[in-house]
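We store chain and fold; example below:
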Amino acid sequence: MTSGPDRTPLARAFFDRPVLEVAPDLLGRTLVRTGPDGPIELRITEVEAYAGEADPGSHAYRGRTERNAAMFGPPGHAYVYFIYGMWFSLNLVCGPEGAASGVLLRAGEVLKGHDLARARRPKSRNDRDLAQGPARLATALDVDRSLNGTDLCAGPAAPLSVLAGTPLPTSSIRNGPRTGVGGEGATHPWRFWVDGDRTVSPYRAHVPRDRTRTKA
């Protein structure tokens, strides 16, 4: 007899570990978004680790600001930021309070609430790409800055929580450089994904902005 994913909520101790331990261990876990329209459940398939003030690729590299304050808070909370003036991204804070480490959720497989996700992502070509990429994931789950600082361990009524799901063996996990990260953090192999999973987003290297202007 085959049992389904474990529905035990992850305790705060799960997140209170070094970010490079938490990030790959999140693969296969179930993210639950509970909203007024109903729940959406998603199996996490791709993540990126960001190591706070020790990581040039992290928002917290230069210290605490109003924008990144949630990263410095207790583990097991959400850090949501707005990027390019268009999209939100969802991160899960980990490590001890003050360490500012976080895991960006890059992609996942929608397990429940497909109709809600499709309504929020009407241009999606199929269910495989409903949450294929951090912006699509946040859009499908109706994540915005109002969820910044949300306690993931507050219980089943919380707007965001993570269940034990089906953790993966090391042999099923791959890692490589983070998407779109330049500078000193470009080569850190801190992107982790489920090997062969079709919901994983395509890798894109960082492309520096061209600040030159062509004169006529």
Remarks:
- The radius of gyration is 17 Å.
